[in-house]
Design a protein that fits this description.
With 264 residues, the protein is mostly helical. The chain contains eleven helices and four strands. The protein has a two-stranded antiparallel sheet with strand order 1-2. A two-stranded antiparallel sheet has the order 3-4.
């Protein structure tokens, strides 16, 4: 019996919604800058994926993203490139969409890795050609933090893949893992965040102000900016599988950081 095609509309909605939920993306709603599973069955025909570009519009209240806060690219690049992915998705710039997703994935954005997985596995998004082994490899990376939706999506994709596809996916996974696994990408993102947030924490200690391009029209109190950035980083880095540990968030404390866990 042929298994039903892999169709994940609810999870796609969730992933797109998460990409839309960052401070960068929420700002665009105003249109201006803001302050191994079993089974070797033959592959089923590709499903008809949900209209991702329409879902991106729905997730932002029907308004197009016109601007991504460029000053946050150096602080939380996973969110910045997630925003850029939505920008291109809404305009059906398919090659730029996948490129931005890969940039976000490079900085440990699991939603981006998941969307890459289903996009390649299903092969029916825009003019992006199917590559089931590559999609399966991205889904394996997306499931790394044991998010139930991503784990289920990965298991379903494995069950609908041939042995040859799974073997090829394993080789691709090992290659992708070198740059995109939490151990590498998560540590990279945390170190970048800690490096960029430190001067702002110093400014907060002295009651100073900071300015981030696109974050607001004027410099803001460093204490407020640091807290907002820490809140977002805590969400981004949640569940990094022991690679990094989120410490207590206290923007008034000089040493408050998200700390890489010591190597074992």
């Amino acid at each position: 019996m042929v298994r039903p095609a892999l169709a994940l509309p609810l999870r796609v909605v969730a992933a797109v919604a998460v990409l839309c939920a960052s401070p960068m993306t929420m700002a665009f709603q105003s249109g201006k800058p803001a302050i191994n599973a079993p089974g070797d069955a033959a592959p089923a025909p590709a499903s008809t994926s949900p209209d991702l570009s329409q879902q991106a519009l729905d997730s932002t209240g029907g308004k197009k993203i016109n601007y991504c806060i460029d000053g946050l690219e150096r602080i939380l690049p996973a969110d910045y490139y997630g925003c850029r992915a939505l920008y291109h998705l809404q305009r059906e710039h398919w090659s730029s969409f996948t490129e931005s997703l890969r940039d976000a994935a490079y900085w440990a954005n699991k939603n981006a890795q998941y969307l890459l997985g289903i996009t390649y596995f299903n092969g029916d998004t825009g003019d992006i050609r199917a590559n089931r082994p590559l999609g399966l490899a991205w889904l394996a990376l997306a499931a790394e933090r044991k998010n139930p939706d991503y784990v289920t999506a990965y298991a379903e994709a494995v069950a609908r893949s041939t042995q040859a596809e799974k073997m090829q996916a394993s080789r691709l996974y090992l290659k992708l893992k070198k740059d995109y696994s939490d151990k590498v990408a998560g540590t990279r993102a945390v170190r970048r965040f800690n490096h960029e947030i430190q001067p702002m924490q110093d400014a907060a200690q002295s009651g100073g102000f900071v300015y981030i391009s696109g974050f607001g029209p004027f410099p803001e109190q460093a204490t407020s900016v640091v807290k907002r950035l820490h809140d977002q980083a805590e969400k981004d880095f949640d569940g990094l599988m022991g690679t990094v540990t989120v410490g207590a968030i206290d923007p008034d404390a000089h040493s408050a950081q998200i700390r890489p866990e010591a190597s074992k």
